[in-house]
Amino acid sequence: MVGQDHDRQAALAVLGLDPGANSDAVRAAFRRQVKALHPDHCAPTPESLSRLAETLSAMRTLESTGDDLSEIEIDATAARQGIVRVVARIGGNLILRIPAGVGDGDIVTAVGSDTGVRIRIRPESGPITVAQPDPGPDLSGFVERFAAPSPASRFAGWVRRRPPAA
């Protein structure tokens, strides 16, 4: 475990992150570095290709060691009723079946895995009010003018209905 922790810290250092970085920060730093170092965006020098290889190696290390305990934030209603969520992690997505009555700080184990995710409950902000849509201007006149046949279409209809000349 000590070796894994050292490998993880070294990989995070390659990505320019602190040891406490979460999976979202790791993903963002990886994408940023790969985009900057990719041969399509910069001249492929031995130094840039070496740094790109280090970045890819660091990401593979982080994928193999897994990241620290993830957190997911849910609202109080979801905590009372229970909910199913998908959490994106470095090694792949986790499906969480959060039971009804879960508490703040509880750890829920992912389906088909022994990986745990800490639950954070967002406090309720009060009653939810639904705004009524603004009816806006009366559109009936516009619709009638828009749907009414234009002079050109009326002429085309007259030409089609006109009896052929003898």
From TrEMBL:
Superkingdom is Bacteria
Annotated J domain ranges read: 9-67
Protein's name according to its UniProt entry? J domain-containing protein
Species of the source = Hyphobacterium marinum
Q: Which InterPro entries match?
A: DnaJ_domain (IPR001623), J_dom_sf (IPR036869)
- Coiled coil location: none
List, alphabetically, the Gene3D superfamilies matched. DnaJ domain
